[in-house]
Amino acid sequence: MNVTLTVNGETRSAEVPPETTLLVFLREYLNLTGAKTGCDIGDCGACTVILDGKAVNACLMLAAQADGRDVITIEGLATREGLHPLQKVFEETGALQCGFCGPGVILSAKALLDENPAPSKQEIRNALAGNLCRCTGYVKMIDGIQEVAETMRSVPTPALPAASKGEQKHG
Amino acid sequence: MKPFTYERPTTPAAAAAAVTRRPDAKFIAGGTNLLDLMKLQIETPGHLVDVQDLRLDTIEATDDGGLRIGARVTNTALASDPRVRRDYGVLARAILAGASGQLRNKATTAGNLLQRTRCPYFYDTYQPCNKRQPGSGCAAIGGYGRPLAVIGGSDACIATHPSDMAVALRLLDARVETVTADGTTRAIPIADFHRLPGDTPHVETALARGELITAVTLPKPLGGTHVYRKVRDRASYAFALVSVAAVIRPDGTGRVALGGVAPKPWRAEAAEAELPSGAKAVADALLAGARPTADNAFKLPLVERTIAAAISDARE
Ligand SMILES: Cc1cc2nc3c(=O)[nH]c(=O)nc-3n(C[C@H](O)[C@H](O)[C@H](O)COP(=O)(O)OP(=O)(O)OC[C@H]3O[C@@H](n4cnc5c(N)ncnc54)[C@H](O)[C@@H]3O)c2cc1C
Ligand code: SF4
Question: Is there a single domain that holds both residue A124 and residue A141?
């Protein structure tokens, strides 16, 4: 069947069998391997992407279910001007170690900040509860996300992909 | 996953007809439970009927002062609705005590009610399980019983219903609205929606084949203080060993329902008359006739203590 969706602001489509998950669609049909295949059962959060403004597990969703909808993956965050502030702070402070959970954690954090520009530490913890990190203990991630929230509030809107700024539709 | 075909109808009756037509068809909503089970080939539908375009995703006030929650309203949307947070706090708290943000963003009201058990033997396709394969036996009875039911089970199955949301809906006397292929609608009281296993543990609800859930309705607000207490093996992101949903009024009367102990959300209206006498009396009345295993007998005192904690939360 044909699946057509917007990925990081671009219309992308492919012919896939119905049993293709969104994760397999992104990784194997679009070659966007930023979303990781971890547990594949919704436990680890390594496959997290943003669908119509909300962080979701791409492994527990069919590509067909995402047809006509808007997806942001980690590949959509950096611009020509440089890394997304979350990527930058994670790099600068060593908030990631092996990095496998990184794309998922960063997208969960981005979805949080898009809805709540001034989250408390507890709200950040709640937003990351579905992203398992076995290396870091989360402390630098949580500090980093708070730091980004503060700078994003104090400077004019930084460059973000167009798709994340628009009205969120709930399809 | 076994190959299947997929469609997205645009009206509830067409969706019900599509599932009724094919004995191997199933509805899919968020997919967070169904796809998990399909990957393990515990569920093997040949056709999936996606409910996302049926316009069942709004929360509306009803004429009698309650709310009608569309079947496809996500758990996130339901828990963050200002009316739910204000008037049905126990429901918002129960939902937020379950799964993760990413999962709640996809999980739907109907899908959550219909999620299947987390019994470890149900998930292990090398083990006998009457629920997965009727007549094959039950590996849990005499096996590892820690997560399983202490009451309401049968000689065929002792699995628990894993939903947190359903416990709050039982407490609130919700009703489940449905439609069938010929357009017939009905409203099923939540108390009658989930079935006890008896000797047919694979039959889990009152729904007929192809019957589509369109909404869940809540009666007008109860008032009182709303509490949801969930006890689990780690602080977030785990299923309940025991959970207590409670609404307590200033005079000490109220309602109590339990999760994690039975094949369905567990409530006994008669037990609630004991609330002014304290947690022990309520727990004894709720769990009269319990048949725990050696591994899960700890749930009986845990229920009492969790009710006591809920009552004291409500006083604060
Ligand atoms: C890692 C993990 C942790 C979790 N932790 C918790 C937890 O702590 N507490 C908790 O309560 N839950 C938990 N869950 C379960 C989660 O809440 C459910 O998977 C979710 O609510 C199911 O909703 P869905 O819309 O994705 O359903 P689906 O998977 O789409 O469907 C589930 C069932 O409902 C049927 N269905 C769906 N919509 C309709 C309809 N309108 N009419 C008729 N039938 C319909 C489908 O045919 C299917 O049989 C967890 C899940 C995962 C993966
Ligand atoms: S308790 Fe129920 S679900 Fe678990 S193995 Fe026995 S029959 Fe299957």
Answer: yes
